[in-house]
Design brief:
It is a single chain. The protein is α/β, with parallel strands linked by helices. The protein contains seven helices and five strands; from the N terminus they run E-H-E-H-H-H-E-H-H-E-H-E. Strand 4, helix 7 and strand 5 form a beta-alpha-beta unit.
Length: 205
């Protein structure tokens, strides 16, 4: 469900390690007179919670649908973590629609959590139902490939995903779900462009 709003919402989403954050920052830097990058400080729990609550009040059906989707499709041992990421994405959207700029750029928002939180591939009709309930961006830049660098075993602070079973299966599921969601988005009025390469600096037009 597209929401007519100002500013124009743009999201960067897709496979981890595919250049989303680099691309989003580069995009905003080149258009600093008209674009704002939407971020939430993970350490600032109260503002983060307030932003998620704002989304829930403005879009109750979407909030419930996303919460249910996340609970059902996440790995059981990661449900709390996954719900936190989903609520953060809601907060980013709520913050984006309030900024005073022509474009609000979201790095890893609502579309991203649909692609990356499920522990297994999701049916196309399930994605279609959830997309019909969510407020969606006008445009999405999609990373279809990535190196999953955040999920390396040798990181100083291990990612919560490493404590769950089925890491290899999850990576395969992410790639499959990215492809399905990217294919469906134009049905809902979202313009889709690919992020070119893992550096993400160059965007395909």
């Amino acid at each position: 469900m597209r929401q007519e709003s100002s500013p124009v919402i743009i999201e960067f989403a897709g496979v981890p390690g595919g250049g989303k954050t680099t691309s989003a920052r580069s995009f905003v830097a080149r258009r600093s007179d008209s674009s704002v990058l939407i971020t939430l400080d993970m350490r600032a729990r109260l503002p983060e919670a307030a932003a998620a609550l704002s989304f829930a009040l403005a879009h109750p059906r979407a909030f419930f649908a996303l919460s249910r989707f996340t609970f059902v499709h996440s790995a059981p041992e990661l449900r709390r973590f996954s719900l936190h990421l989903a609520f953060r994405a809601c907060g980013k959207y709520a913050k984006a629609v309030r900024v005073h700029a022509l474009e609000a750029v979201i790095d890893e928002g609502l579309i991203h959590v649909l692609m990356t939180l499920p522990a297994a591939p999701v049916r196309e009709d399930t994605f279609r139902r959830i997309l019909a309930r969510l407020p969606l961006p006008a445009k999405a830049y999609i990373a279809r490939e990535g190196n999953f660098h955040r999920f390396a075993e040798n990181r100083d602070v291990p990612h919560p995903r490493l404590r769950a079973t089925g890491l290899t299966e999850w990576k395969e599921a992410v790639r499959a779900n990215v492809g399905i969601v990217a294919r469906l988005l134009p049905e809902f009025g979202v313009r889709v462009e690919d992020i070119a390469g893992q550096s993400g600096v160059e965007l395909r037009r």
